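Thread: "does anyone have the structure for this chain?"

Original post by V.I.:
We have the sequence but no experimental structure in hand. Need at least a predicted one for the grant figures.
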Amino acid sequence: MKAIKSFGLVECGTQGKHFQLPQVSKQEGYLLKKVLLKGDVSADAARREFPDAEIVTDKKDILQDDSIDLVIVASPRERDMGLVSEVIKAGKHVRII
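Reply from O.Q.:
Generated one for you, tokens below.
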């Protein structure tokens, strides 16, 4: 049995109102655990798209969760790049899409 890798998603904005989550979320062995919305996406839309994930309102909910191995930062703007540094300092892998 393969180990499940949990990850968090920080959605900084949407391009055309579509979530930018990569294929990793659809691969066996990965579990989207938490989603933080920073852009113009509604929590209701996120709940519909990611019904099994917890929608959080504070980045600490993802950064301080020891079960999360990877944080995907989607559609970042220049002002969001500090978040990437915080993810690395929290000891997590980061992917920017």
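V.I.: this helps a lot. The mean pLDDT is 79.
O.Q.: and The longest strand covers residues 30-37.
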